[in-house]
Amino acid sequence: MYCKNCGNILASNANFCHVCGAKVEIDDIFDAPKTEEKNEEVEAFKEELKDYYNQEEPKKEEPKPEPGFYQDFYGYKSSPEEQQAYRDKAMKKRAFIPGLIGTIGCGFLLMDSIMTYLVNIFYYNQLYNSGVDSSQTYLENCYNALTSSIVTLALATILGGVLGTIGLVTASKVNNKKARIFGAIAVALACIALALAVLVFVYRVEVGNHIWEN
């Protein structure tokens, strides 16, 4: 038997058409129509079914990668431009650190150089001239002052010269005002500490040679 609504072949015990869903009534059952006389609605319905099952699923939009560290952490692939922008931003934030370290270190070195200079120029000389210290003791103090000057020269060069210069160069690249200030201060303090250390060194060498010759 056939569905009166769409002409589809029905099972003998069917209550509903499995194509169009129409309820099957005994009075509605009729002979099969000729092939060339198929209902246009059936063809249209079949086309709709075909279009429905053949349509493509909508593509899921990939999450937009976030710049920098988050891309690497979550497995995103970032573009070279985004990576460079993230590196520049991170460098700008940390650009002041070398200059700050150099400034703090050279600040302590400067205080040590001032104390060494004052103690050697005034205190040790006074003890020696008043006869409290012997020539041997004075020479030992000269040796200690020379050693301290050499250490100060090395540390001031590293902390102020190297770190301060790194801070200035980095500041010029990323245009960080704070980094530029700290770098300049570190270099300036290093120069002062170096100058005092050199003065103590030269003075002690001259005095030590004079006492040793006498």
TrEMBL record:
UniProt keyword annotations, A-Z: Membrane, Transmembrane, Transmembrane helix
Record field: transmembrane: 96-123, 143-169, 181-203
Name by which UniProt lists this protein: Zinc ribbon protein
Organism (species): Anaeroplasma bactoclasticum
